[in-house]
Amino acid sequence: GDSVTQMEGPVTLSEEACLTINCTYTATGYPSLFWYVQYPGEGLQLLLKATKADDKGSNKGFEATYRKETTSFHLEKGSVQVSDSAVYFCALSGYAGGTSYGKLTFGQGTILTVHP
Amino acid sequence: ETGVTQTPRHLVMGMTNKKSLKCEQHLGHNAMYWYKQSAKKPLELMFVYNFKEQTENNSVPSRFSPECPNSSHLFLHLHTLQPEDSALYLCASSQAGQANYGYTFGSGTRLTVV
């Protein structure tokens, strides 16, 4: 079945440091890939997505590239801010045939804390 | 405003109480989901509804009873809960069969069972 593996957290960085959160996946066919962010006390929000190999999703200074050869979708940001402190989830939607995509499979989440 | 509204935001209930969580979406979606998020545990998918029909129940105890009267509303009825059921309950919606567009989540209901 489909699965997503994220790097273990928590991750603690100083403001303006570089961020990478690793995500690898197992899926048949051509899944769509996502990063969601959950700020304290809130639900999950879609941060970015990519739907085919070599696509780069980007939003709010974050980016991730769909790498089919390494089955990876690592999240990166060049300079983090205190306001980026949140839990980050990698997810995939498996291709189910025709025009149908199945439900999302989530990784376990990575807690990011950014200090001033 | 995320398009998916959950009420109440916080709920404290005793183990013998009966309460309901409500989820409402105005996005024109036709698939809805309940998730449980406990501290230090991965997201747990509880129930899936497509076009008002339950299509997935992930071995959830019967003290949790979902209801989907139409594609815009989803309820989770709770009775005789245990302290370990304390968690953040998240509702999400999407177009059925089009999860490649992602889900839209509500802000969740923080449930405490005492």
Describe the structure.
The complex is a heterodimer of chains A (116) and B (114). In chain A, 0% of the residues lie in helices and 56% in strands. Chain A has strands at 3-6, 11-14, 19-21, 23-26, 32-38, 44-50, 56-59, 62-65, 75-77, 86-97, 100-106, 110-115. The model of chain A has no long low-confidence stretch (mean pLDDT 93). Helices cover 0% and strands 56% of the residues of chain B. Chain B contains no helices and eleven strands. Chain B has strands at 4-7, 10-13, 18-25, 31-37, 44-50, 53-57, 64-70, 73-79, 87-94, 104-105, 109-113. The mean pLDDT of chain B is 93. The chains are: A mainly beta (116), B mainly beta (114). The A-B interface holds A 32, 34, 36, 41-46, 49, 51, 89, 93, 95-96, 99-104, 106-109 and B 2, 4, 6, 33, 42-43, 45, 48, 56, 90, 92, 97-100, 102-108, 110.
Quick structural overview:
The complex is a heterodimer of chains A (116) and B (114). By secondary structure, chain A is mainly beta.
Uncertain runs of chain A: none
| Strands of chain A, total number | 12
Q: Radius of gyration of chain A from the CA trace?
A: 14 Å
Mean pLDDT of chain B comes to 93
- Secondary structure: helix percent of chain B: under 10%
Task: Identify the biggest protein-protein contact and residues per side.
Answer: A-B, 25 and 23 residues
Major sheet summary line of chain A: 6 strands, mixed
Mean pLDDT of chain A: 93
Biggest sheet of chain B, in brief? 7 strands, mixed
Kindly name the structural category of chain B: mainly beta
Low-confidence parts of chain B: none
Multimerization state = heterodimer
**Beta content of chain B:** over 45%
Instruction: Tell me the β content of chain A.
Output: over 45%
Supply the number of helical segments of chain A.
0
In DSSP terms (H or I, runs of 4 or more residues), the helix count of chain B works out at: 0
